[in-house]
Amino acid sequence: MFFGTGEDAGAKLLLGQFDAPAYIRRARNVETDFDDLIMRCQRLKREWLNQAERLYEELRCKAGDWQRLERWVSQPEQLAYLRTLEGWLQPVLRYPPPRSSWFWGLSRSIENLRGLIRQFNRAWDSHLRQIDLGPINRARDGYNRWYLLEKECSMGSSYLAARGFTPLTLITMDDLLEQFPPLPESGSAAS
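^ thats the sequence. predicted structure below, dont judge the formating
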């Protein structure tokens, strides 16, 4: 490892041997753990919604405009449901089908989409409820217990250490369900 020469070389070598103070590492770890959980959930959710997104986008591409479908759907709330899904599903087809004037089986396709979303919601709820929040909450508890002490030791002042400190709440299943709510399942659902 090359740190240069001269007066600063010793100081640079010494600084290179250490990371940030313990309280900063602790805060980083807590934040990283939570961000990693959210990113894993987002990635998995996108994977699991792939089929529903494709079916939705195929319907949208074939219709061109949801208003064109009004006379072809068996229940008016089906169009409202498709519009509601617009904000929840954000699909992009690589090879979109051409716009079509043939709407046979459209109601069945919409019901298939509803079925896929119901199936996703059940599986997703089950997945979220199986996530072990213990390690994340132990890290958050450690942060609440030790952050101020470690910062005070580093700064030499309990007053400075306490400035701006807010204890972290433990993550609950409700927090995850709020972060990743279920998709609407019926035509009367609002987003």
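Confidence is low (pLDDT under 50) at residues 187-191.
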